[in-house]
Design a protein that fits this description.
This protein has 105 residues and is mostly helical. It is 66% helix and 0% strand. It has one domain (2-102). It has 6 helices and no strands.
Length: 105
């Protein structure tokens, strides 16, 4: 989990997205379930993150660990990045995460 966190931070993944991904995986490990960390917020970005979280929940957090990320993560990262003016290649964010996590095995 620390390796994934380091990768997400290194490629400038927005903090809320990083926290949501790590929380989802941790809840899967702990066999607990909850809502997205932004659930209930009326912010457009937070609603998008909650929707992406829900989509990943359907795909499975185990599957995320195998490199099967929801297609919505790229759009969510792009929206948060655009809002915060952070430099990040959002078109290839998911591919970059998968490559950095598994490409050197």
């Amino acid at each position: 989990m620390e390796q994934l966190k380091a990768i997400l931070v290194a490629i400038n993944t927005p903090e809320k997205v990083t926290k949501a991904l790590l929380l989802g995986i941790q809840q899967w490990i702990d066999k607990t379930s909850s809502y997205a960390p932004t659930f209930g917020s009326l912010s457009g970005l937070d609603i998008l993150l909650a929707d992406t979280w829900s989509d990943q929940q359907c795909i499975g957090w185990y599957n995320l660990c195998l490199g099967q990320l929801s297609l919505k993560w790229n759009k969510t990262v792009q929206a948060y990045t655009h809002a915060s003016n952070v430099s990040l290649d959002t078109d290839h964010w998911a591919s970059l995460v998968i490559y950095l996590r598994y490409g050197n095995i």
